[in-house]
Specification:
By secondary structure, this protein is mainly alpha-helical. Among the domains are: 3-44; 53-131, Type II secretion system (T2SS), domain F (Receptor-associated Protein); 264-370, Type II secretion system (T2SS), domain F (Receptor-associated Protein), CATH 1.20.81. The chain is 73% helix and 5% strand. The chain is built from 17 helices and three strands. The chain has helices at residues 25-34, 67-82, 87-97, 101-115, 120-125, 133-145, 148-205, 211-225, 227-246, 248-257, 264-285, 290-298, 304-318, 323-330, 335-347, 350-370, 372-406; strands at residues 3-9, 15-21, 38-44. It has a three-stranded antiparallel beta sheet, with helices on one face. It is elongated and about 125 Å long.
Length: 407
């Protein structure tokens, strides 16, 4: 807690000076008045702010804050907060034990902001590259409702689910990616080393290479002569895409497009709707008005396109429509989910309905992830067949033609 210098007149009228810890100057003044003392002056000790201990973090090439770091942080904050440890002291302790230097520095700055009088959600929002929007908004909900420990518990559960989904998607895509990379490397080696040898042999016989082989040779010679152009263009394209994604319009277009990617788009959409349902449920059950809860959730789903659809629901409710009718106008929910919403509104159990919607989408995501590998297999067969056809036309046709030329 902050340290204060004070001057008071005690009950006997004597002048007393000293230092004491308190949550604020007003809290310390109230303590003195309860003991029948008269506070004359109370001032914060500014030197104590360096006790935050930045730990001399060297952030050159600083590591990225991962889901594992966020899960551990939320679990620790839940334990400390539910145990009654003061907020500033709890975060200061996490600064000293942070495994990730990026997270440690951000928490150290959060402590400084808290001691200067900023609210917790505002302090976290200053570091949007470390703490996601969902975490900041849900902490704001916890501050409003006084259920900060429950918010950190729900956040840790949410991040654990998100990590599980990402791990399973990566596991399903690992084998197809490996096969495609191996075939691409094989095509590159054949184009650069094998096929050019055929061109020399055919040139000695005065024969002409087949068209597929000439195409591969043209690509090979271009790569050999202008490899720096290809690398430069690739780097420029990557930088341009990153800059476009940082703009509001670019991010919106990408958030909308990635929901339409075959096989993976539905999983991303349902995972986003799980986040919406959980966040909306947390806000609604905490007593926040329906329109305000939708506004919090729209900014916390980390998808600007879905967030726009949630704003449509919010605008419909503000105009007097029901939740179900507004959700149907948004166009992102299935008829079954809309029916569940209608039942929840009719029975007055919107919180239970939101929990059921989240569990419904979680089951669908789990089912899709289990069948992702089997759904990718036919596509992989077609791609591998096309690559093998290219190799066959590029390598075996000149061999057959060479035999006829020799005869």
């Amino acid at each position: 807690m902050p340290l204060f210098n004070y001057k008071i007149r005690d009950a006997a009228g004597n002048l007393v000076e000293g230092q004491a810890e308190a949550l604020s100057a007003d809290a310390l003044a109230n303590q003195f008045q309860m003991s029948h003392a008269i506070p004359l002056s109370i001032s914060a000790v500014a030197v104590k702010k360096k006790s935050v201990s930045m730990k001399n973090f060297n952030l050159r090439g600083k590591p990225r804050v991962t889901l594992d770091d966020l899960i551990l942080f939320c679990r620790q904050m839940y334990t400390l907060n539910s145990s009654g440890v003061p907020l500033v002291r709890a975060i200061r302790g996490l600064v000293e034990t942070a495994r990730n230097p990026t997270l440690g520095e951000a928490l150290a700055k959060v402590v400084v902001d808290l001691e200067s009088g900023m609210e917790l959600s505002g302090a976290f929002s200053q570091h949007h590259q470390v703490f996601p929007a969902l975490l900041c908004r849900m902490i704001q909900v916890g501050e409003v409702t006084g259920k900060l420990d429950e918010v950190f518990l729900q956040l840790s559960i949410h991040f654990e689910r998100e990590k599980d989904i990402i791990s399973r998607v990566k596991a399903a895509l690992r084998y197809p990616s490996f096969v495609l990379i191996a075939i691409a490397v094989a095509i590159m080696i054949i184009s650069l080393f094998v096929i050019p040898a055929f061109s020399k042999v055919f040139a000695s016989f005065g024969a002409e290479l087949p068209l597929p082989t000439r195409i591969l040779l043209g690509i090979s010679s271009f790569m050999q002569s202008y490899w720096y152009v290809v690398i430069g263009a690739t780097l420029i394209a990557i930088i341009a895409v990153k800059r476009v994604l940082k703009t509001t319009r670019g991010r919106y277009v990408w958030d909308r497009y990635k929901l339409k990617i075959p096989l993976v788009g539905d999983i991303i959409l349902r995972s986003t709707l799980v986040r919406f349902s959980r966040g909306f449920n947390m806000s609604y059950t905490a007593g926040i008005p329906l329109s305000q809860a939708l506004g919090f959730t729209a900014r916390a789903v980390s998808n600007s396109y879905v967030g726009e659809k949630i704003e449509i629901i919010r605008n419909g409710i503000e105009r007097g429509d029901t939740l179900t009718r507004s959700a149907s106008h948004a166009g992102i929910f299935t008829p079954l989910v809309l029916q569940m919403m209608a039942v929840g509104e009719e029975t007055g159990s919107v919180d239970t309905m939101l929990n059921d919607v989240a569990e419904f989408y979680e089951r669908e995501v789990d089912y899709d992830l289990k069948n992702l590998s089997s759904a990718i297999e036919p596509i992989m067969i077609v791609i591998i067949g096309a690559m093998v056809l290219v190799l066959a036309l590029g390598v075996f046709l000149p061999m057959w033609n060479l035999s006829s030329v020799v005869r």
